[in-house]
Structures are given as C-alpha cells and as structure tokens.
Specification:
The complex is a heterodimer. Chain A has three helices and one strand; from the N terminus they run βααα. Chain A is mainly α. In chain A, helix 1 packs antiparallel against helix 2 and helix 2 runs antiparallel to helix 3. In chain B, helix 1 packs antiparallel against helix 2. In chain B, 26% of the residues are buried. Classes of the chains: A mainly alpha, B mainly alpha. Chains A and B meet through strand 1, helix 1, helix 2 and helix 3 of A and helix 1, helix 2, helix 3, helix 4 and strand 1 of B. Strand 1 of chain A pairs antiparallel with strand 1 of chain B.
Chain lengths: 102, 177
C-alpha cells in the first residue's frame, strides 16, 4: 500500500527542475541534462500509474522502457549535433548568436 | 505512512536534491555526476513502485550509457574544470526561468495530486514474466519500430559527427580563394 502523492510530487519537482535547467543554462550539454530530467519525470509518472492501476497490458512499464530507449537515441543524435556545432563554431554557448545566424 | 511511503520518501528526497544540484552546480563535471545520482535514485524509486525490470533498464541505459555519453561530450568540447559562472545565463533570465519552472511544477503537482483519490492504493508491481509476455505480444510492433529508430539514430549520429563539418570547411576555403 502506498500513498500516491509522494511520487506525483516528485514528478512535479523533477519536471520543474529540468525546465529550470533548460532555461537557465548556457552550455548546450547542460541544457540536455535538463531535458533528461524532464524525461525522467515522464517515466516516473508512467511507472507510478502503471504500478497502481490494474492493467493487463502493463502499459505503464512497457512505455517507460520505450521512453528510456527513445531518450538514448535522442541523446546520441543531440550530442553528435553538439560536437558538430563545436567543431564549426568553437563554442556551444546557446546564448551567443553564430556569425551566420544574424 | 506505510513502509512504501517511507522508502519512497527517502529515495525521492535524494532524487530531487541531486536533480536540483545537477541544474545549479557551477562545475560542469559535477552536473553530469549529480545527474548520475539523480537517475540512480530514480531507479530506486522504480524498485519501490515494484517495477524491477524498468529499474534495471534505467540503471543500464541511463546511468551506464547516457551519463557516460554526456561526460564524453563535456570532455570533447573542452569543458573548463573548476568553478565557473559562464555556464549560467544572466541573473534576470535565471529569475524568469525560476518563475516559469516553479509555476510549471506547481501547476503539474496541483493537477496530478488533486486528480487522484486520497488514501493508499495497492502496488501491483513485480512479475517480469508478465511484463516480458506483454512486451513480446501486444507491444511487439512498437518494440521492433524502436529498434529501427535506434539504428537510424546510430547512423545519423555517425554521419553527423563525421562528414558534415569538413565538407563545410573546404567549401568555405573554396569561396575564399
């Protein structure tokens, strides 16, 4: 037996933390850390309801495994893009406009 | 308070605190390491909720692979070691970000917590057997599509990090001459 509010509160806190990380960081890799935290919040929400409602299809747990897979694919492509940007621009500061952005 | 609540609260406080540390620390490397702690304690939360296969996948994929990728990216982009204020946006933008993130968290928390019934519910976790049977019967097509997605992401990442930049550099020197 478990109360539902602690997991849901953690979902809200993790999502807010991730959103703050996305908005307040300048380094592109640290922005990705914020995105990972938001995805983690979504996964926790899936697992919470997947474990507490009676579901024969096990949708909550299966979708969390899919979410983790998609996060892995996303981070691989995003880091490749960041490395390409670093090699062509010399920095990965998301607040500085590049020479061909203006 | 039930035993589940106590274990979840301990892990949840650790998870939230390390997540906050990951987005506020001034050391670049520490951000990735705090992310490791956050995702590992989140795997512990999944265990408390009875999703042991998901917890193991989380440990293997997130803590084992994704954090290592992030650390590699930080090193390859010559991240400065030590304290630095250069990773954060100016104070005004951080304040606005704090307001937006805080209101999003409050809204999400209020909607979710008031949306569920008060009181305790039963945890039907466990049974990796049932989960595996579902994964390879009902969910087999999304599963196969995801393997295709991973292949595409792998090829895309390889193509992106190999050929794009040198081609652009030669084109630019070609224009100059």
């Amino acid at each position: 037996m478990i109360h539902l509010w602690p997991p849901l509160l953690l979902v809200a806190i993790l999502f807010g933390t991730g959103l703050y990380g996305v908005l307040a960081r300048r380094n592109a890799v640290l922005v990705l850390v914020g995105v990972e935290l938001m995805l983690a919040a979504a996964g926790l929400l899936f697992v919470t309801f997947g474990s507490t409602i009676r579901d024969t299809a096990r949708a909550g747990h299966v979708l969390t495994i899919f979410l983790i897979t998609i996060a892995a694919a996303e981070i691989a492509v995003a880091l490749a893009v960041i490395l390409a940007v670093y090699r062509s621009r010399g920095d990965i500061d998301v607040t500085v406009a590049g020479e061909d952005d203006l | 308070m039930t035993t589940y609540d106590i274990f979840f609260s301990i892990l949840g406080v650790l998870c939230a605190a390390s997540g906050l540390a990951a987005v506020t620390t001034r050391h670049l490397m520490h951000a990735a390491l705090w992310l490791t702690v956050c995702l590992a304690t989140l795997a512990g939360c999944y265990l408390v909720l009875g999703a042991e296969l998901v917890a193991l996948v989380q440990l293997l994929v997130y803590v084992g692979a994704i954090v290592v990728l992030v650390l590699f990216a930080l090193m390859l982009t010559r991240a400065p070691i030590g304290r630095s204020h250069d990773h954060d946006t100016p104070l005004l933008q951080r304040a606005v970000a704090l307001v937006i993130a805080g209101s999003a968290a409050v809204l999400l928390g209020a909607v979710l917590i008031t949306g569920v019934r008060d009181g305790t519910v039963q945890v039907h976790g466990g049974s990796t057997n049932a989960l595996a049977r579902m994964l390879f019967t009902s969910w087999v097509w999304p599963f196969e599509l995801l393997s295709l997605l991973l292949l595409i992401a792998l090829v895309g990442a390889l193509a992106m990090s190999r050929s794009l930049v040198p081609a652009r550099a030669t084109r630019r020197t070609g224009e100059d001459s």
